[in-house]
Amino acid sequence: MKTILVISIAFTGIGCLAIGANTNNVAAGNTGETNMETPASGDFYKNLPNGFELPRDDAGRLLLREYGAVFLARGGATPPKKVVYRDEADVVAFQNTLKRSTEIIGGTRIELQTAAMEALKAAIAEAAKSGLTIGPRGADSARRGYNQTVSLWASRVNPGFVHWVGQRRVTQAEAIRIRSLTPYEQVPEILELESQGIFFAKSLDKSIIYSVAPPGTSQHLSMLALDVKEFENARVRAMLAKHKWFQTVSSDLPHFTFLGADESELPNLGLKKVINSGRTFWIPNI
Ligand SMILES: [Zn+2]
To answer: What is the pTM of this model?
Structure first.
C-alpha cells in the first residue's frame, strides 16, 4: 500500500480546509502539522446511498468533504440522504424513520440507531474484559435535535460578530443582517466571511466547522455518532474501530461515527485514512 507524507502549510481560509490543514481542538501531544495519508481505492460518490442529494453550493461541498463519511454508513445503519437538514421538522421526520435503541451507559441515557447501539454494546462488553470502560461524555453525546445544533452554532456566531464588528472587519449592519437570517441561511454567509479570513471558531483563528457543526449538519442528528469519554485512550479507540466505530471528523477528537463496515473495507468505499495527532481518521476521498 502506498503511503504519502503530507506536510500541511499555513491555514489561510476555506479554500485550504483540506486534509492536512486542520488544527485540532486538543492541545496535548498534538503537533497538528504532520499527517500520514493513505489514498482510497474506491469511489466515494458511487457508494453514497440511493437518492442522496448532492450539494450544489460551496458550503455544502465543503461539509460533504469534512463530515461526509457518515453518508456511507451500512451494516444495518441508515445514513442520511442530505448534507444539511433544514429545520427541526426535517430532522424529526428523518429520525422517525430510523430503527432506534435507548440504553443507560455509564449512568447516562443515550439513543442511537439500533445497529450502532448493538456494535457499541459489543465494544463495551469486550473492553470490560480488559478492565476498560467506554461511555458517553455527557447527556448530549449521542442523539441530538436540530435546535441543539442551532444553540451550539449561535454560541460561536454571536461572539464572533462582536469581535469582528469591533475589529471593523464586518459592519454592524452586515452582522445584524446575517444574524436575522434563519440558521440554514446563515451557514453559507458565515463560510463566505471565513473565506476572507473572518473566522468564527471559538478561537477566532479557524473555521467554525472545526468548532461546532453548522445547524442541521451534525452527525449526531443521524444517531450514528457518539462523543466518547475515554477518547484519549488508544486501546478504547482500537476497540471501537474493531466494532465499526471510527473517527471521521479530523478536528473533533472525542467524536466517533458508526460506519458499519470493517476497517479493511473503508478504502474500497472511497474513504482515505489520515493519521493526525496519533489518531486514525477516515475521510471522504473527494
Ligand atoms: Zn460529536
So the answer is: 0.81
